[in-house]
Write a structure and sequence with these properties.
The protein has 326 residues and is α/β, with parallel strands linked by helices. It contains 13 helices and nine strands. It has one domain: Nucleotidyltransferase, domain 5 (2-Layer Sandwich), CATH 3.30.420.
Length: 326
């Protein structure tokens, strides 16, 4: 008699844009469905015909690594975009424009953009920089490898907070770490809503110096019983039991180097933030000739604000919609 293979969701969560004073905060999740025999295995190894954990111009496979290794400002967006859109293409097809990508991963964000002049009309064609033909080839390669291994791309999700929405949430909580944690928990809920009958393994890049997440998980998922598996400064692991399936939740130091879905979530978050910063910079360059673009971090963000101040005042833009409060 054949044993029915139980399916497990392996999910990773990571953020981009926690530190800047301009542009959005983005937290994303990536998930794959595997048979229970692969649940403790390495997805990089299982999908090695199509993906790699190293960055090399000579390797045609899709690099899925910490976004900081894929995207360096002097090198441009091409490598990061190729990795993200190749996976999106294998999952749901390549969206022709940015709002099409948002409709897949963060549909709630689209309705928020009308409040921001720099995002209101923005909908650039995709890809922004990468070669579309090479993207399609890479996506097809990943699709083929997924089919051959019996692994499925289970989904990509993002929580994106534009500047004003970010300020409102930080104002309500008086703590931006609480905002980040709330977005992480919301992503966990979205994944569990999509896969209510599956065992889920959540891997999250550790957030700050926190080692103890049990009380937070108990308050957030009251219908589940919590068991602490392990807690120290490098990893904190829990089981949440309830309904028909168990969740395992792990918060890992440098999670993007240990779990492929965390690395992919890091890349998706960074790509969305960079795409939004392209829209932001394009808007302001149209108002201020010879304006140097910004990545939004503190020192250069202050320079940028000084350069646009006269025009921002003339447009009647309140700082609460433009500059992040912390």
């Amino acid at each position: 008699m054949f044993r029915m293979v139980r399916k497990v969701i392996i999910a990773g969560i990571d953020e981009a844009g926690y530190g800047p004073i301009l542009g959005p905060l983005v937290v994303s999740a990536a998930a794959f469905e595997v048979g229970d025999g692969r649940a403790d295995g390495c997805l990089w190894a299982a999908l090695k015909a199509a993906v790699t954990r190293t960055v090399s111009a000579r390797d045609s496979r899709i690099a899925i690594v910490d976004s900081k290794k894929l995207h360096k400002p002097k090198d441009g967006l091409t490598r990061l975009e190729r990795s993200v859109l190749s996976v999106v293409g294998a999952w749901r097809g390549l969206p022709p424009r940015l709002r099409g990508l948002l409709a897949l991963v963060s549909p709630q964000t689209v309705a928020q953009l009308g409040a921001y002049p720099w995002y209101r009309e923005a909908d650039p064609a995709l890809p922004l920089k990468a070669d579309v033909g090479k993207l399609r080839i890479a996506a097809a390669m990943l699709q083929r490898t997924l089919a051959e291994t019996g692994i499925r791309a289970a989904g990509l999700w993002s929580e994106l907070l534009p500047e004003g929405h970010y300020n409102r949430l930080v104002g309500q909580t008086n703590n931006k770490a609480v905002v980040l944690t709330g977005l992480t928990l919301r992503l966990m809920q979205r994944i569990s809503d999509a896969y209510p009958e599956h065992e889920i393994r959540f891997n999250v890049d550790k957030q700050g110096a926190r080692d103890h997440y049990g009380p937070l998980l108990m308050r957030s998922f009251e219908d589940r019983r919590l068991r602490v598996v392990h807690e120290d400064h490098t990893r904190s692991e829990y089981e949440l039991v309830g309904g028909s399936a168990t969740w395992r939740v792990g918060f890992h130091e440098s999670g993007e180097s240990q779990h492929m879905p965390v690395a992919l979530a890091s890349c998706l978050s960074k790509y969305l933030r960079e795409a939004f910063m392209e829209c932001f910079n394009s808007y302001w360059r149209a108002h201020v000739p010879d304006l140097r673009p910004t990545a939004g971090y503190y020192a250069d963000g202050l320079r940028f604000l000084k350069d646009i101040r006269e025009h921002a005042t003339a447009l009647g833009l309140p700082d609460a919609m433009l500059v992040r409060s912390r």
